[in-house]
Amino acid sequence: MQLPPALRSRLLGAPGAAKPLPVERDPAAGAPPFHFAARRVRFPRDHEFFEDGDVQRHLYLQDVLTQVSESPERPRVPEFTCQAAGCCQVFDSLENYEHHYHTLHRNVCSFCGRAFPSVHLLDVHILEWHDSLFQILSERQDMYQCLVEGCAERFRSGGDRKEHLVRRHLYPADFRFDRPKRSGGPATPGAAVQDSAEALGEGEEQSGGDAMEVCPERAAPRPEPVGQRRTSSHRIPSTICFGQGASRGFKSTKKRKEHQ
Amino acid sequence: MWRGRQGRLRPVGCVVEELRCQRREREAALRKARREQQLVSKRLLRDDVLEEAEGECVAMILGEAEIQQFLQLAQRGTDEKQRESALVSLRRGLQHPQTQQTFIWLEGSMRTLVGLLTSNRALLQLEAARCLHELSHSEQSAVAEACLPATSYLLTYLSGHSSDFIELCLYTLGNLIVESEAVRRRLLPQGIVPALAACIQSPHLTVLEALGYALSQLLQAKEAPEMIIPSVLGSTLPQHILQLLQPGPKLNPGVAVEFAWCLHYIICSQVNNALLISHGGLSTLGLLLLDVAGAVQRTEDAGLELLVCPVLRCLSNLLTEAAVEVMGGPNQLEDERVVAALYILLQFFVQKQPSLLPECLWLLNNLTANSPSFCTSLLSMDLIKPLLQLLPVSNVVSVLVLTVLCNVAEKGRAYCQHLWPGPLLPCLIGTLASSDTEVVGQSLELLHLLFFYRPEVSFGPGTPVLRPVVSPWPLSLSILSIATFLGLASLCGLQFRTCSLWLGRHSSK
């Protein structure tokens, strides 16, 4: 197919429309038996007109057609250790380290050390577990927000929220990012440690590898003096420690109870 | 851009002819599936580099006992490396359909896998997700449905930060979505559309390509026009999609292909195309077409037709919307560079992919049908002759070419003056002799319009254009030869009547 040479330069030229020639239709032109009428045509999705293109698309999905270019080199690096405090995991690839970091160290509650898969879930957790104002307000109005992105519903209690998640959103009843709090008031670090110790035990018996909330020996919960207000600083990285006498490390529950 | 992915079972020592034969078989199978409305295709994300590091890729069949053993080791192993390698072995086994079946019927297996998926051990989580991904690739809906307990977690992880993990979750979701309506019925209330709308803001190209894939699978569902597309249109997805299709240095072809197909599924379902037009869909797609035509000129990259096809479809279908009919309105597509781009693509497809010529010509029809400006562009840019060169390709292409020519001719005398006389007549004599009745019918319509608006064009011996064809013979005899051609081609009654009426009308002048 030969194209006029000026066409390519037209493509690169400025936008513009041709000044149309005068249109002078004569209705007699469409008299029977001739019936041509210029019209735009639309095709619905399953029309056979689309068959060839659809088949090409599916061949591509199935990889028969894919242009194979050089896969980006994934460099193996010399072994290195995770820099988060208390974490001694070793890695030899950046991708694995990236996932580890995001899973365990990125969205971590600085009160109790639980890790969450997203900022949203962490925020909800802090609000519901560590904010005394939330507790007060929730006695008077619906404060427990639905966990599903895009759903604006709120509920009086965690239990109501769970029921909503199960009924409306078809979530599993044991959804791991909606664990109920055990104690009544705002969760204290002590209680959290107790919680996590129990949960850890529980987890090992059940389907192994408990939920994200549990902090293993690596990301140890940092005890904070009870009553210290937390506003914008609840996402402090784990390398920072507050308060005199505050220590890092996993203390046994027995000792914790004594101190309280 | 295009990541090389090997097939499931690597052909060892395959001859080129065998590969071609396999491809033909796949094509035939896909055509059959499409006619039965069961066209399902999935993407398998397998890290070839990782597999090479692990050694020979062999899909092993695992029995119940072995699966249980691997699961227990993964759950309770003391050594981290041991736990990981147990899952790796399980994953390799799950590449085989038989192992997949055994796995899903084994009590507690999915629960354990979901437990590992949601564990605090990042690398176990990653391996568990890879196992799920293998399962998602199964062709059995039972296997896809067995993965349902994991879907709420897969969606939750889309709002995380680890791009490789999110990519894996998205491809897994895409595969599950296309396999079973039960899965889609679960995912919609679980909030897949808002989750995707949030995830589309990711800066990672691999995540975006995966997201486009998952969304395209969702939009392909047969219940999509009623159940899915309205909520997609109600979200911020359309604006983001159009943004990702903006031409420029940031345009990624792999990402663009997926989202162009998403747009096509939305547009051809005709739920609310006016919304897309109001977001500037026509101009974005028009500019994208220009960009691709430019790229086609610069490189021989054969992957571009994967992007061109949905863009052509989107533009053609959008042009039929009422919102576009308002002449001179803001939603018009009036840039004649689009026509230039289309011809460059026509030339490209003649060589590379003739099966896509009809779709290009469909857009040309929709551009020229109601637009004197575009018809004038065809004439002023000397684009009639190239169009005539396409006539011999196939009957479908012929009909479309003739229709476009009719679009020009029906606008009246000023247009016909540029068409007639010219190289058109010899081509039309050729098409009149076609055995396809639609081709002949359209040729007659065109001839009629040309003679109607230019009755003074004579067939006498003095007409230089016609001399090589019918020179010594008077008008009646040339028409008689046309009639002979018509007679030779086996016509249906209507065509015969049409042409005899036509003969009657024109021979009397």
Automatic annotation (TrEMBL), chain A:
Residue span(s) of domain C2H2-type: 82-105, 109-130, 146-169
Basic residues bias locations: 251-260
InterPro entries per UniProt: ZNF511 (IPR039258), Znf_C2H2_type (IPR013087)
Start and end residues of each stretch annotated as Disordered: 177-260
PANTHER family: ZINC FINGER PROTEIN 511 (PTHR21354)
Protein name as catalogued: Zinc finger protein 511
From TrEMBL, chain B:
Family matches, as SMART domains: ARM
Keywords: Membrane, Transmembrane
InterPro entries in the record: ARM-like, ARM-type_fold, Armadillo
Membrane spanning stretches: none
Superkingdom, natural source: Eukaryota
Entry protein name: Transmembrane and coiled-coil domain-containing protein 6 isoform X1
